[in-house]
Design a protein that fits this description.
Blueprint (H helix, E strand, L loop, with lengths): L4 H26 L10 H8 L1 E5 L8 E3 L2 E3 L1 H13 L2 E5 L4 H9 L5 E7 L2 H4 L2 E3 L4 E3 L1 E6 L17 E3 L3 H12 L5 E4 L4 H9 L6 E4 H7 L6 E6 L4 E8 L5 H15 L2 H10 L7 H13 L1 H15 L3 H12 L19 H6 L8 H18 L8 H12 L1 H13 L7 H7 L6 H4 L10 H22 L12 E4 L2
Parallel strand pairs: 1-4, 1-5, 9-10
Antiparallel strand pairs: 2-3, 5-13, 6-13, 7-13, 8-11, 8-12, 10-14
Length: about 475
């Protein structure tokens, strides 16, 4: 039996109040040391060896992955900490509004939280050079009528996160659309509102384009109705202060990683694989996840433990290869869950390719062999992407692509560069000069990108503690001028 909305709101508010008190206490204890005993903020960070950063849980910023914490902001902050030769400490306030408030109050060194640069915020904060460009987009769910104009938004419930740039955008639009109305939510973030749309509890929200690019893989029924802003830029936010030493160093850091293309490589790492899995494929994956994966998950975990992998990598390869069908057979004769060729099966000691355990352990052994052939100087995650590409196209063709990459003046040790060279193996101008000749070079690129997406989906379904068992609608404020 469903509780009345009033009681759900009250329950959610009380829980949130308790969590907020605990969070506030934790943040206060984690606040950086006073700069009065140091000549500058930068000196204090270097001498204490600690960089304190405000961020938020989100697939675009900071989240827990198979190998620990990840996210674009997490990686950027860790690089900056390495640049300073210090360690990074992350503080996660309960709401986005608290991030801005605590940044302004100097309760951390800066915020790295996917913060949009706006004219109003430029009056309050110092912003580093931007690291990403996004647009704000209206999101709705399949099965409901798509809003096509701003006026259409009044035909449903539009809800946005309080104190975000999305509110500023709506206020600007209200000047030309005086009937525009919306609700503001001070408890949930954009991910939470997207969940509410998916659950049909609200009709529309606003999300940044980078957020919806990642989240749509987990909520495939969410759609973009239209852009509601011009392109905007994301950057780190610093407290306005006469001491700009740390801010100046961060500015130099962003100029450096833009120039040496490290920033470009990070963007590819987090977003380069996200556009291949379409709605139908995503829904099919979820059905197979629920009906087929349970039969083989223990085998994936057993093989992964033996060969030192995260089991979800093996499961993702198997899904790409066979959709978890142990009896799968291709027109070329490859078979089983991991779709091993006869030669590969012999190489890894497999007798029955249609035996689930043999196939999974054989595939894991073969992937381990691929990894060992990748030069040790290549770091993760590129090392794994190279191994996966060679799993698909063969190590020889991968090496040919890396040589082409080098001839093009790019880095043969970076997947972002090699994935652009692999398709050239279909062109005579290039493959005629290689050792191993022609290859369908687009296939390993799509293969790796798909597996990366399947890994993300598996992480979401098996390790997501925030799909947030939302059982109530939080308090909202109606904005009517």
């Amino acid at each position: 039996m469903l509780l009345p909305r009033f009681f759900l709101i009250l329950l959610f508010s009380l829980l949130n109040a308790c969590d907020a008190l605990q969070s506030e206490s934790a943040v206060e204890k984690a606040a950086p040391a006073s700069d009065t005993q140091y000549n500058s903020q930068l000196e204090r960070v270097k001498k204490t060896g600690l960089l304190t950063v405000l961020t938020r849980y989100d697939p675009t910023t900071y989240y827990e992955s198979a190998d620990g914490f990840s996210g674009l902001e997490y990686d950027l902050v860790q690089l900056f900490a390495q640049h300073l030769k210090v360690k990074a400490k992350f503080i996660i306030p309960d709401t986005f509004a608290q991030i801005l408030k605590k940044t302004q109050a100097g309760e951390a060194d800066f915020s790295a939280a996917g913060i949009t640069i706006t004219p109003d915020r430029q009056q309050q904060f110092l912003f580093t050079p931007p690291y990403q460009e996004i647009t704000e987009q209206i999101i709705y769910r399949s099965g409901t009528k798509q809003p096509k104009t701003v006026a259409d938004l009044n035909k449903g419930i539009l809800e946005v996160v309080q104190d975000t740039s999305h509110v500023e955008t709506l206020l600007q639009l209200q000047e030309s659309h005086p009937n525009l109305q919306w609700f503001t939510n001070k408890n949930l973030d954009t991910d939470g509102l997207l969940y509410l749309i998916n659950a049909r509890l609200i009709d529309y929200t606003i999300a940044d384009s980078n957020q919806i690019t990642l989240i749509r893989r987990f909520y495939p029924k969410l759609n973009v109705a239209f852009d509601i802003s011009t392109p905007r830029q994301l950057a780190w936010a610093f407290q306005k202060s006469t001491d700009t030493s740390l801010y100046d160093e961060a500015t130099r850091f962003f100029h450096e990683i833009s120039k040496n293309k490290v920033l470009e490589q990070l963007l590819e790492r987090h977003y380069g694989h996200t556009r291949n899995i379409q709605y139908v494929g995503n829904c099919t994956f979820r059905l197979h996840f629920e009906s087929l994966l349970p039969q083989y998950q223990a085998l994936f975990q057993e093989a992964a433990e033996k060969y030192a992998f995260d089991w979800r990598i093996l499961a993702a390869i198997s899904y790409q290869e066979s959709h978890w069908n142990k009896d799968a057979v291709s027109p070329t004769g490859v078979k089983g869950l991991m779709m091993l060729t006869r030669a590969t099966a012999k190489q890894v000691g497999i007798k029955d390719r249609t035996n689930a355990k043999e196939s999974i352990f054989g595939g894991a052994r073969y992937l381990k062999q691929r990894l060992k052939k990748i030069p040790k100087r290549i770091p993760e995650p590129d090392r794994t992407w190279f191994a996966l590409a060679s799993y698909n196209v063969g190590f020889g063709h991968l090496e040919d692509a890396r040589i082409i990459t080098q001839k093009l003046g790019k880095n043969p040790d970076k997947w972002i560069d090699v994935k652009q060279a692999l398709p050239l193996l279909t062109k005579k101008k290039w493959y005629s000069k290689t050792k191993h000749g022609y290859a369908r070079g687009k296939e390993p690129v799509l293969y790796v990108d798909n597996i990366r997406s399947y890994i993300d989906l598996l992480l979401w379904y098996t390790n997501n503690k925030e799909i947030k068992e939302i059982t109530a609608m939080p308090p909202i404020t109606l904005n009517i001028d």
